[in-house]
Design a protein that fits this description.
The protein has 232 residues and is of the alpha/beta class. The protein has a domain at 9-123 and 187-229: Rossmann fold. It has helices at 21-32, 39-48, 52-63, 69-80, 98-110, 125-133, 173-187, 190-196, 209-220, and strands at 9-15, 36-38, 88-92, 115-122, 135-138, 144-146, 165-166, 200-204. The protein has a five-stranded parallel beta sheet, sandwiched between helices. A three-stranded antiparallel beta sheet has the order 6-5-7. A hairpin with a 5-residue loop joins strand 5 and strand 6. Helix 1 (21-32) packs across helix 9 (209-220), helix 2 (39-48) crosses helix 3 (52-63) and helix 4 (69-80) runs parallel beside helix 5. The longest helix is centred in the last third of the chain and has 15 residues, at 173-187. It is globular and about 45 Å long. The structure holds BIS(adenosine)-5'-pentaphosphate and magnesium ion. BIS(adenosine)-5'-pentaphosphate binds next to helix 1, helix 2, helix 3, helix 6 and strand 6.
Length: 232
Amino acid sequence: MVAGADSRLYLIFLGAPGAGKGTQTAMLSQALGIPRISSGDLFRENIKNQTPLGRQAKAYIDRGELVPDAVTVGMVIHRIAEDDCVRGALFDGFPRTIPQAEALEAALAEQGKTLGAVVDLVVDHEILLERLSGRWMCRGCGASYHLAFHPPKTEGKCDTCSAELYQREDDRADTIEHRLLVYYRQTAPLQNFYRQRGLLYQVNGEQAIEAVQEAVLRVLGVSQPAEYAGFG
Ligand code: AP5
Ligand code: MG
C-alpha cells in the first residue's frame, strides 16, 4: 500500500502525450473517490472561459510547447489547497519539468501532505501517434475516447455526461510530433528524479485500458475493491 499511515493518497501520473494519463486517472478518481487534477484540463477550461491565464497559455498549447513554469505552478498549487483535495489527489500531466516537481514537493510539504507514488505509463512512440490521431474528447467532463480503441456508446456523445465530443486542436499530426519531442526532452528526466526518491512505478501502458487499470491498482496495492472504501 503506497498510502501514508493517514490514508491520504497523492499520486502523480507521468507518461507521454497519449500514454493514457487522462483515461486512467478518470477511472481511478471514481474508484478511489479522490479528485483528478489535470493541468491540461485546467488550461483548456481557462481558454474556454477566456481568462487572462487562458489567453497566456493558449499560444504555447497550440504550438505543443509547455506553458511556462511560473504560470503552471501557481495554477496547480492553488488547486491543491481546495477542500476536496484534503484526502488526496491524482496529478495528471503535472509536474512536467524538474522545477515543477520541486515546487510540488515544497507545496505538499507546506500543506502537510506527502507524495505516495509516481505511476509512469510506458507506451511506444508509434502507438502514441495512433492513439492521439484517433482521440475524441468530451466538451463537458473532459473524458477521452478513441475511434477504434475506446469508442463512445453513441457516436459523437459522451457516455458519462452526453455532451458533444471534439478533437483537440493540439492533436494535429505536426503538433503531436512536437509535443512528443518536448516530452522526451523536458518531462522524461522526471523518471530519474522520482526513481532517486524511490517513488517511481513503471506500468506497461500498451495493454488494454482495463488491464492497465488493474496493473496500476496492483502497484498501488489497492487491487481489492473492498479496499476502495478506505479512500472514499
Ligand atoms: P495535456 O492535456 O496534459 O496533454 P498531454 O500530456 O499531451 O497528454 P494527453 O492528454 O494528450 O494524453 P493522455 O496521456 O491524457 O492520454 P489519454 O488518456 O487522453 O496537456 C496539453 C498541453 O497543455 C501541453 O502540451 C502543454 O502545452 C500544456 N500543459 C499541460 N500541463 C502542463 C504542465 N504541467 N506544464 C506546462 N504545460 C502544460 O489517451 C489518449 C488516447 O488513447 C485516447 O483516445 C484514449 O481513448 C486512448 N487510450 C488510452 N489508453 C488506452 C489503452 N490502454 N489502449 C488503447 N487506447 C487507449
Ligand atoms: Mg490527457
